[in-house]
Amino acid sequence: MKKILFSLLFVLISSYAVCQNPYDLWLQYDKIEDKTLLDSYKKQVSNVYLNLNSPTGDVIKEEIEKSFKGLLHIEPKFDNKTPNLIISTLNKLDPSLKKKLSKTSNINDEGYVIQHISEKGESKIILSAKTEKGLLYGVFNFIKQIQLHKDLSKLTIVDSPKIQKRVLNHWDNLDRSVERGYAGFSIWDWYLLPELIKQEYIDYARANASIGINGTVLTNVNSNALVLSPRYIQKLKALANVFRPYGIQVYLTARFSAPIETGDLETADPLNAEVKQWWKDKAEEIYTEIPDFGGFLVKANSEGQPGPNNYGRSHVDGANMLAEAVAPYDGIIMWRAFVYSEEKPEDRAKQAYSEFKPFDGKFKDNVLVQVKNGAIDFQPREPFHPLFGAMPDTPLMMEFQITQEYLGGMSHLVFLPKLFEEVLEEDTYTQGKGSTVGKIIDGQLSNKKLTGMAGVANIGTAKNWTGHQFGQANWYGFGRLAWNPETSAETIAKDWLKMTFSNNAEFVDPMSKLLLDSREAVVNYMTPLGLHHIMAAGHHQGPGPWVKDMPRPDWTSVYYHKADENGIGFDRTSSGSNALDQYASEIQEKYSDPATTPDKYLLWFHHLPWNYKMKSGKTLWYEITAHYQKGVEQVEDMQKTWQKMQKYVDPQVFKETNMLLDIQLKEAKQWRNACLLYFQQFSKMDLPDLIPEITKDLDYYKSLETPYAPGIRPSWN
Ligand code: GCV
């Protein structure tokens, strides 16, 4: 009986302990259960010195209070006489304490030092920075150390962001639909702004600040000129006021034809004097209301958006005209290089390079050219964009996609930092061995004045912000990598898991493996061995290797996989489109021969016969089938791992993730079956035994429809 009561009690206690609130993201401040650790923390940070009289100072104080109350169950004392946690900017720090800090000269304006010191036999923790913004970042990192159960008596952290502009891009429309959004509607309630300031805006800013994000573009790159009207500038101003204490600047997307659409002018020609003045006046109008407005992000002459080419002008003309308008206020222009023309027969993968490379060194100092990680479009895997390294005299900003347009939308668990890490670690060889993409965008290789990283947000009105609980990890991971592109995906996975769920190794170890493997799983069951862009048309969810009748050939699947009786893959060597020529000679040499091309990029660069002999000794056809099967099995493994995690996870999150994994498995099988049946028409080879019997035929998979799939603007009829 005693035993039963005991185990009942245990079940009660353990289920009580697991009550994360998904809305709180990685900022879960649940009480530390380990009593010894808790007592030692309480002793070390019982009394806080904080002497900041500013909105950012208030945010810092609130965060200390909230976290100490939650994690340590104490009300921190803010008694400036005998503090053991001292939070102060460097210029106000007692010189005797300042002397004890290591390497403060290494930090930049957003950096900070956290150090445990001994003074007169007493132990103290000093958290200092050049600016209050630096202090805010330091405070979040300090709290993280407690969330991660770190030994505070050994702390010495000297850290600064390696990238200056760490920006979320919201593809949010003014009607609150979100292009490629899978987490509900836009969180920006434009209709009720500026009067209604929702708590979400504050919590959004806090979450972003906690991972070092310092800017947000609020509107879709497929933009609407209305947001530049005086009425909307007031709404924007209200949001800017909320975000400012958290160190976050607001940006807008600029519709290039806005001077016409507002009814003011008849042209938007960037070399026209009136147009130039229009943008200067607009900038002045915005900066009068929002002095720290960040600037504009522009998608021009791409997928139907207006731009300078409409007037026979170049991207440089367009970007520089806008750059001049915002320059007096330290504003910047993020000009996207995502261009490909329906009129050009050139391989789509080559077009951005062909168009932008000749412009190297021609942009004004406050322009960043924003380049997607790969040359096509955020596929599960792409080789790095050849522009990285090819424009040494132009600051290039990385654009990653956090929202999972091509990686399972709302229902697939895919840990994207693994993808981001792979891109950042790729060697471009453009300045010799070791010229990684990461080093190009953080300015290490060129001493760039401006550096930036953008992430297309996966945030919406979903109660947990991202729809899929594990989408939070991708938002978190983007922030960590924007702060320091050399952070490993493994560190990010472990930190996120610990901060969100539990420090218990029995949870963290298998779950970090699950996260780290999840990206390869999705590549395997969607686009293995360098295949790409074979998804369904329009909403981009599910397989569609048969897609061929579209308004543009480069929107079809057949354009990319080129499967026929002779084989499969896109020949991008000199015998084909020669896109390979846009890379450094080291890469060209290696990738021009299929035998030395890494398998993961094989069909990106080569069209090969179905019976081509792979490095494994098996045929290409066999390897394609085996990769699809492996992807499915990897999802099954994810399910098995997740089943064992119940006791560490909030019951609702556990249940929902279970159901989502079921959907992911079902869809992984759909991808496998549909793609194999489709390609088999050309290979005319049998499916190996490792593929379980496929009971449906290809027509069945082709007939599957997904009406109202999210991510594209709904039509209300
Ligand atoms: C915002 C792809 C997406 C579009 C997106 C575009 C872009 O084509 O499917 O939804 O538009 O990229 O990045 O501009």
TrEMBL record:
Gene Ontology terms: cellular component: extracellular region
Signal peptide residues on this chain, from the entry's feature table: 1-19
Keyword Signal: yes
Enzyme Commission number, as recorded: 3.2.1.131
InterPro entries in the cross-refs: A-glucoronidase_C_sf, GH, Glyco_hydro_67_aGlcAse, Glyco_hydro_67_aGlcAse_N, Glyco_hydro_67_C, Glyco_hydro_67_cat, Hex-like_dom2
Superkingdom of source: Bacteria
Domain Glycosyl hydrolase family 67 C-terminal: 466-688
Reaction(s) the record says it catalyses: Hydrolysis of (1->2)-alpha-D-(4-O-methyl)glucuronosyl links in the main chain of hardwood xylans
MF term (GO), any: xylan alpha-1,2-glucuronosidase activity
Domain Alpha glucuronidase N-terminal: 25-142
Domain Glycosyl hydrolase family 67 catalytic stretches: 146-465
Family: Belongs to the glycosyl hydrolase 67 family.
Protein name per Swiss-Prot or TrEMBL: Xylan alpha-1,2-glucuronidase
Organism: Zunongwangia mangrovi
Lineage of the organism: Bacteria, Pseudomonadati, Bacteroidota, Flavobacteriia, Flavobacteriales
